[in-house]
Amino acid sequence: MKGPGMVDDRQLSAVLSEFAYTIATDFSIASILDHLVRQIVHVVPVTSAGVTLIEEDGHPHLVAASNDAALRFERLQTELSDGPCVLAHGSGAAVSVADLSVEERFPRFATAASQAGLGSVFAFPLNHGRVRLGALDLYNESVGSLSADAMSAAQTLANVATAYLLNARTREEAHQSSDQMRHLASHDALTGLPNRMLLLQRIDHAAERARRSHAPAAVLFVDLDRFKSINDTYGHDMGDELLRAVGVRLTDVVRPGDTLARVYGDEFVLLCEDLRDQSDVDRVSERIRRSFDPPFTLDGVSVSISASVGVAYAGPGDLVSGALIAEADQAMYQIKRESALGRATSDLDSLPSRGRSVALGRDLRAALTGKGLDVAYQPIVEPANGVLSAVEVLLRWTHPVEGPMPPASVIAVAERTGVVSELGAWVLERACRDWVRWQQDDPDGAFDLAVNISTVQLMAPDVAGEVGRILDRTAMVPERLVLEVTESVLVEDPERARLVLLDLKALGVRVALDDFGAGYSSLSYLNRLPIDILKIDRQHIESNGGVGRSSEVISALTTLAHALGLQVVIEGVETKIDRLTAVQVGAELAQGYFYARPVAAADLEALLRGAGASTSPFRLPRQRARSLRRR
Ligand code: C2E
Ligand code: MG
Ligand code: MG
Fold first, then answer.
1. pLDDT, tens digit, for every residue of 163-173?
2. Does the predicted model carry a pTM greater than 0.70?
3. Which of 32, 84, 163, 312 is most deeply packed, by most CB within 10 A?
4. CA of 393 to the centre of ligand 2 (A)
5. Whose C-alpha lies nearest to ligand 1, atom 20?
6. Nearest C-alpha neighbor of 316 from the set 280, 358, 352
7. pLDDT digits (tens, 9 = 90+) for 549-560
C-alpha cells in the first residue's frame, strides 16, 4: 500500500494502461478529463484533483474534478485569475505549494483556500511543446510536500492526458468536415449513387454476411447500349442528364437494401443480397431490362435506349467477393458481343475500364506463373541510432505492355479479380526465401521482415493456414515476421479481424497496423485487436510540412501507442527534420527515403554489405555498439 508521500508503481502502471484503454474507446475531451482526475487520486497521495482547460485567449472552457471541493477550488482560481493552476499554465512548469497558509505567489487564492480547509496544492501544466492546454491541480487537506516520485507520476499522467487531449482535438476538428468528405468520397457526384469504392465495401460486407447466413447473393452489371452515340448526337450535358435519369429509374426497381452503384461512365452495378434463389435474380434483371422500355424525356427530347445486363450469382455457401463484379462484367460483355454481331460495334470499343480491369487481372494471373513480378525491399531503422531493424517487402509488377504498375493499383486489381491471395502468397514466399538466405549468409545480422497483407487476402478463408505452410516451406523464423494490415479491414469487421489476427499470431508472427492516420484512424479498435506495431502514415508528415503541428499529432499518437504497449514506426521519413521528429516523439522505428528508397533484393544486399560505413545511412544490429550515443 502507499505510504505517506509514496507512489504505488503497480497502481501507476495499472492506471496508465486502464487510462489508455478507456480513453481509446471513449473519446470525448470531457471524458478524458474526468478520467484523469478520478484516476490520479489513486496513484498520488492527495485528497482530490481538478483540471481546467484554458483557451488561447485565457478563458477557461472545460473543468473536471474528483469531488465537489476540488470543483470549487478550480472555479475559485478561474474567478480570481489567481492560483497554482493559472501559474502552472502560464509558466509551463509544475508548481508545488507545501503550505498554503504561507504562500505569497497567489495571495488571493491562498487566503480563500486556506480558509476553506486546504493545506497544500500541486499543479502540473498540460503542455506539449508550444501548445498549452491548461493545468491539473492536486489538493491535500494536510500540509506537506509530495515526494519526487509522486510529483513525477503526476506529471506523467498529465502528459499522457495531454497527448489524448491533442488527439481528441485533432479528431474533433477533422470530424467536422469528414462526414461530408466521406459522402463525397464514397458517392458518384453525377447521380448521387454509391461509387465503386463503396460498392466494394458493401460486397465485402455481403461476403461476410453470406458466410454466416449461407444466403445467395448476386451482382448485376448494367451497361447502357449505344450510350456513346447519345453523347455524340446530343452532347455531353444530355449524356449526363440521361445517366441521372437512368440512376433514378434503376433506383425505383431495386429492392430496398440492395446497393445500386455507378462504377464508371455508363456502367451501373447492382448488388442483391439475401436472395431466396436464382429466380429472384432473374426477376430483378427482367425488371431492369423492362425499366428501359419507356423512352426517357430529356430537355423535351424523347430518347430511347436499352441496357445489357450481366449477372453473376453466388449460390448458398458460395464465396462472395469483389470477383463477382468481374464475373458479372464478363457475362455482360459476352451478351454485348453476341448482340453486337447484329449492330455497329463502335460502342464495344469504348469499354476501357471494365475491359482493362478484367484484362489486367488476367495478365496478373499469367505473371504469377511467368515473369514480370518482383519485389523491392525498404529498410526500417531505429531513428535514434540508425540501426537496421527490419526490411519491408514491396510488390513490383512490370506489365508486358504498360510497364511498371503502382503496387496499390496492382493489389486493387488483384482483389477485384480474385488473385490477391495467390499474389500475396507469392510475395510472402519470395520474401521469406530471401530473408532465410540473408540469415544464412550473415547469421548475426538478424533483422525482421515486414510483409503487407491486403484486406481481401486477410479475410480469405484459411489465411493463417497458408501463412503457416509458407513459414514451414521456407524455414522462415516466425518471430522475425511482421504482417502489415491496414485499418479498413479492422473498421469494417473488427470481430472477424480479431479472430483472424489471433490465428496468425498463434503462429508466432507479429502484426503491424499500416498507414495509421491515413483513413478512418479509429482508435477504438486499437486496444481490442492483437496488434504489436503501429505504423503512422507519412501523410501526417507530408500534409503538415515536416514539423510543427504534425509532430503534435505524431507525438500524441505515439504516446497513445506506447500506452497501449505498441511499438511505433513513423513512415515517410524523408528529411533530417523528419528523422528528428521521429526521435523526439520517441518512436522506436522510422522508414523512408531519408534512409533508403525501396530497392531490389540485390541492391539491398549491397546496402547490407556496406552498412556501418560512414557513407551508409544505417548500421546492422551487431554494429549497434559503435553508435551507443543514445539509449
Ligand atoms: P505501404 O505498405 O505503406 O508501403 C510503404 C509505401 O511508402 C511504399 O510505396 C514506399 O515506396 C513508400 N515510401 C516509403 N518511404 C517513403 C518516403 O519517404 N516518401 C514517400 N513519398 N513514400 C515513401 P509503394 O511501394 O508504392 O507501395 C504502396 C502500397 O502498396 C504499400 O504501402 C502497400 O499498401 C501496397 N503494397 C505494396 N506491396 C504490397 C504487397 O506485397 N501486398 C500488399 N497487400 N500490398 C502491397
Ligand atoms: Mg506496409
Ligand atoms: Mg504504410
1. 778 777 776 66
2. no
3. 84
4. 8
5. 572
6. 280
7. 557 778 878 888
- Ligand 1: centre distance to CA 394 (Å): 6
Measured by CA distance, the residue closest to atom 4 of ligand 1 is 394
Residue 530 CB less than 6 A away from ligand 1: no
The single-letter code of the amino acid at 538 is: R
Segment 234-258 mean pLDDT: 90
- 394 CB under 6 A from ligand 1? yes
484 close to ligand 1 (CB < 6 Angstrom): yes
Ligand 1 centre to CA of 154 (Å) is 40
**517 CB less than 6 Å from ligand 1?**
no
CB 241 within 8 A of CB 230: no
Cα Rg, the chain, nearest whole Å: 30
Closest C-alpha to ligand 1, atom 42: 452
Q: Using CA of residue 509, residue 481, residue 537, residue 199, what is the dihedral sign? A: negative
Cα-Cα-Cα-Cα torsion 527, 533, 538, 540, nearest 10 degrees, comes to 30
Closest ligand 1 atom, CA of 574?
A: 18
Q: Which amino acid is at 177?
A: S
Work out whether the CA dihedral 10, 13, 16, 17 comes out positive or negative. Answer: negative
Half-sphere exposure of 126 (CA within 13 A, CB side): 27
Q: Which cell numbers in the block locate residue 149?
A: 516520485
**574 pocket-lining for ligand 1 (C-beta < 6 Å):** yes
- Burial zone of 542 (CB within 10 Å; 0-12 exposed, 13-18 middle, 19+ buried): middle
Cell reading at 43: 496513484
Among all bound ligands, the one having the nearest atom to the CA of 377 is 1
Strand, helix or coil for residue 515: strand
572 close to ligand 1 (CB < 6 Angstrom): yes
DSSP labels for 396-444? EEEETTTEEE-HHHHHHHHHHTT-HHHHHHHHHHHHHHHHHHHHHH-GG
Query: How far, in whole angstroms, is CA 612 from its chain's centroid?
Result: 34
Question: Rounded to whole angstroms, how far apart are CA atoms 71 and 69?
Answer: 5
Q: Which of 538, 539, 580, 531 is nearest to 560 (CA)?
A: 531
If DSSP codes are grouped into helix, strand and coil, which group holds residue 513? strand
Q: How far apart are CA 41 and CA 261, in angstroms?
A: 55
Residue nearest to atom 15 of ligand 1 (CA): 592
Q: What is the identity of the amino acid at 627?
A: S
**Burial tier of 293 (Cβ tally within 10 Å: 0-12, 13-18, 19+):** exposed
**Which 8-state DSSP code applies to residue 4?**
T
Q: Give the model confidence (pLDDT) of 531-577 as tens digits.
A: 999 999 866 555 444 444 557 778 878 888 888 889 999 999 988 88
DSSP string, 54-113: E-TTS-EEEEEESSHHHHHHHHHHHHHT-SHHHHHHHHSS-EEES-GGG--SSHHHHHHH
Instruction: Kindly give, in sequence order, each residue whose CB lies less than 8 Å from that of residue 96, ignoring residues fewer than 6 positions away.
Output: 122, 145, 146, 151
The finding on whether 453 has its CB within 6 A of some atom of ligand 1 is yes
Q: Ligand 1: which residue has its CA nearest to atom 21?
A: 572
